[in-house]
Amino acid sequence: MKFELSQSRIISIGKQGSVMFREKMLIAASCLLGLSLTLGLTAAPKAQAKGDAGKGKETFEQCAACHNVDTDEKKMGPSLKGLFKHKTLASGKPVTDATVLDQINNGGNGMPGYADMLSADDKANILAYLHTL
Question: What is the pTM of this model?
Answer without folding.
Answer: 0.62
